[in-house]
Specification:
16 strands; eight-stranded mixed sheet; TIM Barrel; 12 helices
């Protein structure tokens, strides 16, 4: 792909000879030109004559996707740019939480720096929207949030970041955490987080009443980590559905992981999915290899919004996640045994259109009137782009070319 002469960072441009991806479409559509005017897609069509002095970028018939959506990651705790973490952590949840705290203290982690490294990494790979969970804990206080808020502010023109105030060590079970959550939301956290109301807090009613109460008080959406398996997780899911319905919070609640939806009885799953769809509760799945997890196809058939995320990126929890949402779409496809192109496209949808719906992102897509947040990649079909997740990429944010081939362009970052 070659550019005509002009600045690397553009608010207006003509993207020549590309194939836009639309939700539900496997082949990327016909070859067209895309005219971007002041950060917005103003025209899509063939043989567009650009206004004078508008730079032209030759797409060479490549695919154009809307900017990828990282719907679930943990910010400030990544070890990107730091020495390798030798993982000898135990298998249960508390082992992992304790190990993370110990390693962060040992390394004297700079939360702002590590958040910035992860945001730059995600942007370079094509994510232009990101929801990041930040631990709100009586041990660490609000220092992690303060660092991530500074990183969010620094990157606000390049990456739209939603910060979740996440009580990772427990909410009602840890005195002082609720007050910290209130302070975090007052400071600017965008989303109220929650965690395993029965298994972690051992107080499902009190825990969820607190989460939903904070959401109402601060007019924030909700994102609850739910690792609870089987019937226990199903019980907590029912409580979340009840509160969403009674408080009129349809479209503002996400359940992350929802492992229970992978091992409930078929009749219970069918009923639960129907209620999730009716109440517009989104499900975030990372499609993990080691746990039962929701069936993406079953969720979509039921009308449930399904998004995906990297979870931790190069942290003490797992060494596998790269933060590449195109690769994550491949992992979702593999975990769900998707082989047909139409099914692989469904996996990409979780990392694009469905993710945008879950996060409440407006003007999303590759159509006239949408914000020009785009990813240009090679591939004859959508499935080929997902399976190959090529290094060859151009990332466009608000009409600016900000990254190429996995690297941020020089002078893009506040130059």
């Amino acid at each position: 792909m070659q550019e005509t002469q002009g600045k690397s960072l553009m608010e207006s441009m003509l993207l020549r000879a590309v194939r836009p991806y639309k939700s539900g479409q496997c082949d990327g559509g016909d070859t067209v030109d895309i005219l971007i005017d002041r950060g917005v897609i103003s025209r899509v069509g063939r043989d567009i004559v650009p206004p004078r002095d508008i730079p032209v970028v030759d797409g060479g018939g490549k695919l154009v996707l809307p900017g990828l959506v990282e719907a679930h990651t943990h910010l400030g705790y990544s070890f990107l740019g730091l020495p390798w973490f030798r993982n000898n952590v135990g298998s249960n949840l508390q082992d992992k939480i304790n190990a993370e705290k110990a390693e962060i203290k040992r390394r004297r982690i700079d939360f702002q720096l590590q958040a910035e490294r992860q945001l730059a990494h995600s942007l370079a790979l094509g994510s232009t929207f990101l929801r990041g969970h930040v631990s709100i804990d009586t041990d660490t206080g609000l220092e992690p949030l303060e660092g991530v808020l500074r990183a969010q502010e620094k990157y606000k023109e390049l990456l739209e970041v939603q910060i979740v105030a996440f009580p990772q060590a427990g909410l009602t079970s840890r005195p002082g955490t609720i007050a910290l959550m209130e302070e975090a939301l007052s400071m600017g956290a965008d989303v109220v987080g929650g965690l395993d109301p029965a298994q972690s807090d051992r107080d499902p009613k009190g825990s969820l009443d607190t989460v939903f109460g904070l959401a109402q008080k601060y007019c924030k959406p909700i994102d609850i980590h739910l690792h609870e398996p089987g019937e226990l997780g199903g019980f907590s899911t029912d409580l979340i559905i009840e509160r969403t319905k009674s408080l009129g919070l349809q479209g503002r609640v996400t359940i992350s992981h929802a492992f229970c939806l992978g091992d409930l009885k078929p009749a219970d799953i069918a009923r639960t999915l129907d209620e999730l769809a009716q109440n517009q509760i989104s499900i975030m799945t990372t499609a993990p290899a080691g746990r039962a997890c929701p069936s993406a196809a079953q969720l979509v058939r039921a009308g449930v919004t399904v998004c995906s995320g990297s979870d931790g990126v190069r942290d003490s929890w797992s060494p596998f996640s790269t933060g590449d949402m195109l690769e994550r779409a491949k992992l979702v496809a593999m975990r769900n045994n998707f082989r047909r192109d139409i099914d692989v496209e469904l996996a990409l949808r979780a990392c694009t259109f469905e993710g945008a719906a879950a996060l409440g992102i407006a003007d999303y897509g590759v159509e006239e009137g949408c914000s020009a947040n785009l990813l240009v990649v090679p591939g004859e079909t959508i499935a080929e782009a997902v399976i190959n997740h090529p290094v060859d990429r151009i990332v466009i944010k608000g009409g600016h070319i900000v990254a190429r081939n996995g690297s941020i362009l020089e002078n893009t970052l506040f130059g």
